[in-house]
Structures are given as C-alpha cells and as structure tokens.
Write a structure and sequence with these properties.
Elements lengths: L3 H17 L1 H11 L4 H16 L7 H15 L3 H16 L8 H19 L9 H16 L4 H20 L21 H19 L1
Helix pairs in contact: 1-2, 1-3, 1-4, 1-9, 2-3, 2-9, 3-4, 4-5, 5-6, 6-7, 7-8, 7-9, 8-9
C-alpha cells in the first residue's frame, strides 16, 4: 500500500529530478515560454520537501495537500500555482487515507488532473501539463477496472504520461506566452508536459516501492 513513507519518497524523488533537470527545463521553456520553468519547479519542490520533513502524521491526503500549499507559496507563478493546486486537489481526494491502494491512487490522479483544468481554465488538447495528467488519470481508472495492483498502475501511469507528453508535442499552444507563437509551437516539446511527466514518474516510482 501507498502510505506516508511512500508519499515522502515521492516528493523527495520529484525534488531530486526537478533540481537535476532545472537547466533542461529552463532551456526547453526558453523556446516557447518565459524560460523560468526550471527555476519554478526546482524552487517549488525543494521548498515543499523541506517543509514537509516536519510533517507529523500518517494521513497521505493531508501530506499531499500541505505539500501543494507549500509549492504554491514558494513559487507563486502560473505553473507553481497549477502544480500546487494539483497536489492540493489530489490530497483532498485522499483525505483521511493512511494506506492508499490502486483505487485511491487513481482518484488522486483524477483529482489532480481536474484541479489543473479548473484552475488553469484548460482542457486536453491545448498543449499543457493537462495533456499528461488527464490521460494518466484515465489510464489509471482503466487499470483499476482491470484489477491492476499498485505496481501495474504505476507502469500504466508512466506510459500514459510519456504518451501524453509526446502527443502534446504535436499540438498548438493555447495558453501563456507560447500562445503568441501559435502554429510555430507545433512539433516543439511542451515544457509543462515535460514537468508533469517528471511528477508522475516520481509518484509512480514510490508506488512501486510500496
């Protein structure tokens, strides 16, 4: 089961990835965005991981919700706010849960995706982080229906994240600075989708350790 230790590991692994990939995300974001995504993500997750080190309790939902608040506070940019909202909504879906199974984690991803769409006023197909999280949520729900365990759910989530990231590359940007370039963004990587896939990978890795 996915408990508080797995939640801590997920946050820590995402932080490590965002710090390691900071310059990569900056370069990627510089092509069609403001060029600050790497700084935003590394700051958000470093701050959240540091703050959550003092978390006392075993409520996975509360842990993720508080981590999301820490992210939004540390990096109050558009992406920082969106990712923070995703974790807060996902945490809310797991409120009171101390041991999450496949069904609970699928609910986490769906709430995360819905939070992104509601806060960002976006929908699938607009070349954003949503194009990673919505298919992840959909595939996780399907995996639960098929009776998958946590490890299988994790594999399905990562596959969906990578497929979503690749699909976003072919889309045309509809939001933020990238929207100015419109057709020119087609065929280019979406930095938000990339960051989203790193988040999914970290959570999935912790799920496989459960």
């Amino acid at each position: 089961m996915f408990g508080i230790e797995q939640a801590r590991r997920a946050l820590s692994m995402i932080r490590e990835t965002m710090v390691e990939k900071r310059d990569f995300l900056i370069e990627l974001d510089g092509v069609i965005g403001d060029g600050d995504l790497g700084l935003t993500m590394s700051k958000a997750f470093t701050s959240a991981d540091k703050e959550m080190a003092g978390f006392d309790g075993d409520d996975v939902g509360k842990f993720f919700a508080q981590a999301g608040m820490a992210m939004a506070k540390a990096a109050p940019s558009t992406m920082g706010t969106l990712v923070g909202t995703g974790f807060m909504r996902g945490g809310k879906a797991l409120k009171g849960v101390t041991e999450a199974g496949p069904g609970e984690m699928a609910a986490f991803f769906r709430a995360f995706a819905d939070g992104l769409m509601e806060r960002g006023k976006t929908k699938p197909g607009e070349k954003t982080i949503v194009d990673v999280f919505d298919p992840v949520a959909t595939q996780c729900a399907a995996a639960v229906d098929e009776g998958s365990d946590l490890a299988a759910l994790a594999d399905r989530a990562v596959e969906a994240a990578h497929n979503g990231r690749e699909a976003a590359k072919k889309m045309m940007s509809q939001h933020g600075k990238a929207a100015i370039y419109r057709e020119q963004t087609q065929g280019k990587e979406d930095p938000g989708a990339y960051a989203g896939s790193f988040i999914v990978e970290g959570i999935a890795a912790a799920m496989k350790e459960a």
